[in-house]
Specification:
Layout: H1 5-17, E1 23-26, E2 35-40, E3 45-50, H2 54-69, E4 77-81, E5 86-89, H3 97-103, H4 112-135, H5 149-164, H6 173-188, E6 194-196, E7 205-208, E8 211-214, E9 221-223, H7 225-233, H8 242-259, H9 264-292, H10 296-313, H11 323-333
Helix pairs in contact: 4-8, 5-6, 5-9, 6-11, 7-9, 9-10
Length: about 350
């Protein structure tokens, strides 16, 4: 990069708005290399982004314009200078759907506003997946074009290395990897002709002027319908009760049937193995960012994620054919992070 990215963002803001930047407020860093700021002028504001990964930037710009063209609510691209790896986004405020959910804990599903927002999420998710599956150029996806066996095994081994190992689980590696391949083979049977958002959770949904906007989709690829639905309904700290999950699966399927033929029995048969995979992947992330790097939010997410794992254990008969994985999960479900010196 030729110029300091903050100065480059100030110049891009001036070129777009005709106003000098009076305030430049950084957002807390997440797990990615992207850096975000709120840029404030006299009467206008924007979200400025710097990302050194130029290919990811190109993917994000492409997907953003694609979704806008299809009337999906995503932040507008206000200006870009990809030679400096920067761009400006529409400022949608600070409230996420997760904030709204958290305000109504321990039973957010009882609040009528939350319920209606989640029902809207279910409708929009089905539309995003099917519409993008039909029209998106998946060759533009980065770093992966589809969620294949290699990607599934990567997530499972990520869970093993970053969470199971740090929690002291005892297993035979070659047998566990064999079971991983069995689980991956089963999940691949769900089919992959749709758009998979990859990180579809309430933190990635903004609530602005009572409307929902979707963000952080640049890791999307071709994949199974069930993955994003499971990611949302099994987000650890949302703590949805199973009865509410079932209701929202029904809402999702109601919209899905309008958009594309679907065998509900087959869909549900694959849903729980995919949900298990997603929970294991998130435990891997919590292990890396929490147990290894000491980030408190991720540590606090581990107990509810283990609750999700316990709930999914009995819903996955595939585990009867994966004895080493079953044994490993049984150890983890009955462990506490405080027993391993981690506090939350």
């Amino acid at each position: 990069m030729k110029a300091d990215h903050k100065q480059a963002l100030r110049q891009l803001f001036f070129d777009w708005s005709g106003q000098e930047v009076n305030g430049l407020q950084p957002f807390p860093r997440s797990g990615s290399n992207r850096i975000y700021y709120r840029l404030i002028g006299d009467t206008r504001s924007a979200i400025g982004a710097y990302n050194p990964d130029d290919k990811e930037n190109q993917t994000f710009i492409y997907m953003s314009r694609f979704f806008k063209n299809e009337r999906i609510q995503v932040p507008g691209i206000l200006a870009e200078d990809l030679t400096d790896n920067i761009y400006l986004l529409e400022d949608l405020g600070d409230q996420t759907l997760f904030d709204l959910i958290r305000q109504h804990q321990p039973h957010p599903e009882r609040d009528p506003v939350v319920r209606e927002k989640v029902r809207e999420v279910m409708r929009e998710l089905a539309r995003i997946q099917v519409m993008a599956g039909r029209k998106m150029d998946f060759s533009r996806c980065y770093p992966y074009q589809q969620f294949d066996e290699k990607a599934i095994l990567y997530d499972l081994n990520y869970f093993r290395e970053q969470f199971a190992d740090q929690m002291g689980a005892v297993y035979r590696k070659h047998l566990l990897e064999r079971d991983f391949r069995k689980l991956a083979g089963m999940i691949l049977g769900a089919g992959h002709p749709y758009f998979m958002y990859r990180d579809f959770q309430s933190r990635n949904i903004m609530v602005h002027q009572d409307n929902l906007y979707f963000i952080d989709y640049q890791g999307g690829r071709k994949g199974p319908l069930q993955y994003d639905l499971a990611a949302f309904l099994y987000q650890a700290r949302a703590r949805w009760p199973d009865s509410f999950r079932q209701e929202m699966i029904g809402q999702y399927l109601k919209t899905l049937r309008i958009l594309t033929p679907v065998d509900e029995q087959v869909f549900r048969a694959f849903f729980y193995p995919v949900a298990l995979l997603r929970v294991l992947q998130t435990l891997g992330a919590y292990g890396l960012r929490g147990l290894k790097e000491g980030k408190q939010h991720f540590i606090q997410s581990i107990p509810p994620a283990l609750e999700n794992l316990r709930g999914l254990y009995s819903k996955n008969p595939i585990l009867q054919k994966c004895p080493e994985l079953q044994k490993t999960l049984d150890q983890l479900m009955h462990s506490k992070i405080s027993d391993h010196g981690f506090q939350y």
